[in-house]
Amino acid sequence: MVEVLASVIGAFAAGALAKAGDVGGRAVTDAYDAFRALIVRKLGKGGAVQSVEDEPRSETAQATLAEALAKAGLSADPELAQHADALRAAIAGAAGAGGAGIEVGDITGKVNVLVNSLVASGRIKLGDIRAETGDATLTNLTAGAGAPKKA
Fold first, then answer.
1. Of all residues in the chain, what percent carry a pLDDT higher than 70?
2. How far apart are CA 117 and CA 129, in angstroms?
3. Considering Cα of 106, then 47, then 49, then 21, what sign does the dihedral take?
4. What is the model's pLDDT at position 69?
5. How far apart are CA 42 and CA 117, in angstroms?
6. Helix, coil or strand: residue 114
7. Which of 14, 71, 101, 113 has a CB 3.0–4.6 Å from the CB of 122, allowing a cystine?
């Protein structure tokens, strides 16, 4: 359940960044707008959504949206997960057109660190990943054409 929620929030924040930076063109914008509309419809309000759109890199804004989704009983909603996957695919497709890679700097989590579903047609370069308490988990990382997934 936590992984699904983290995946949904991560995809939404990535979509907000892509849309704000006008990255990926129409496919990314359409997937993001549909995902945003679904979240707002299911929550019945858009304040937490707007916070992430205003500051997509803000951990506080992302945590607020995650809390709102959890309180609404949407932590493992399959429709949200499906839209998150569609948005990630649109972003990956846009990046794949240019052979783009992903570079992630150092990540430090106070409790757990979860990095999930990174796809790059180029390479994925990760910095130091550290969870002060708990586990650091990397799943579904794919780099290069036909590259095997790394765990």
1. 81
2. 16
3. negative
4. 92
5. 24
6. strand
7. 101
pLDDT at position 101 over 80: no
Single out the residue of 38, 31, 1 nearest to residue 16, CA to CA.
Answer: 31
Helix (H/G/I), strand (E/B), else coil: 25: helix
Give CA–CA dist 68/5, Å, rounded: 11
Decide: pTM greater than 0.85: no
Residue 147 confidence class, pLDDT cut points 50, 70, 90: very low
Q: Where are the beta strands (DSSP E) in 6-93?
A: none
Q: Where are the alpha helices (DSSP H) in 21-77?
A: 25-43, 47-54, 59-71
Q: Supply the pLDDT for residue 22.
A: 67
